[in-house]
Amino acid sequence: MKKAITYRLLLPLCLKILLVGCLPDAADNQGKSPDYFSPVVSPSLLQEDFPQPARNPMSKQGVLLGKTLFYDHGLSANGKVNCASCHLPQLAFSDGVSLSDQGVSGKMLHRHSPALFNMTWHKGLFWDGGSTNLESLVFGPLTHPDEMGADLNEVIHYLRGNQDYSELFKAAFKTDTITSAFISRALAQFVRTLISQDSRYDQWQRKETDFNPQEISGYQLYQKHCNSCHQEGLFTDLQYHNNGLDATYPDPDELEELLLGRYRISFDDQDLGAYKTPSLRNIYLTAPYMHDGRFETLEEVLDHYENGIQRNGSLAPELENGINLTNQQREDLLAFLATLTDHTFINNKAYQK
Known about the structure:
Elements: H1 15-19, H2 60-70, H3 134-137, H4 139-143, H5 152-160, H6 163-173, H7 180-192, H8 200-205, H9 213-225, E1 240-241, H10 263-266, E2 275-276, H11 298-308, H12 327-338, H13 343-346
Antiparallel strand pairs: 1-2
Helix pairs in contact: 2-6, 2-7, 9-12
């Protein structure tokens, strides 16, 4: 299993200040331009610096453009749907429903809308890793007929006809040309700024606060029963696992391939029913749970791991014996999970419209 990324960050992200112009000096950014954007994180506690593609270095202008696009209903086919329709800041950029029907078609989606935070450290995106970077990911919901349903040519025509957007794109990318590539790059820049690093857990790690005995007990239970997949730091191992939701899977065909998990991408039988491990950060805000939102509460999730696991050939070996907790241990574990809620993150005005 991939080694966990150490992710204990020292300082809350000062994005609101950064968006209005407080950027590091160029000399501090390895020769990057003065518009290079670097969030306030602690390199000493990361295995790698803040990752971003060389072709899309972040800037305050790019982030501002991406934020404007994120909240613009005009990008959708009917002018009524934006990215925030399924990614609400107050819910850690999730949507609070099992399967959304807020897209332009009104049809229910096949998968639960994932939360958006700390995405810059993720290597595979979507529940099955069908996208490898944020730049390509944004085209999925933007053009899907049951989500925003956009025709990219029409979107570009709409943006080119708006003087404000012309100025925003020119400021962000130093060109008068508006293209789909620049749209995706701007949206990716904004999403990369969505960093959750100031929960009580983070404050405890920084020795700014204390855990009570129940939270300490819950932390120890997490380390014993959950850490193998929800590895400390990001609270995900960034991998894909079959956690026993279903005993069998449909034959792979065009209509049901989304029910096959990571197998849709890898064609490896061991990936049948395997989905990306979601982060436990902000877990109390991101209900319902699982790739299809089938569990409404964390209690239901624990019930599943105790007596609901469906065994098959691709089941994660860590779950062969389930997870059995006493009532008190459940309460302790839930108390610890509550410490992962980042109120600073969800109330950050810089992320909101």
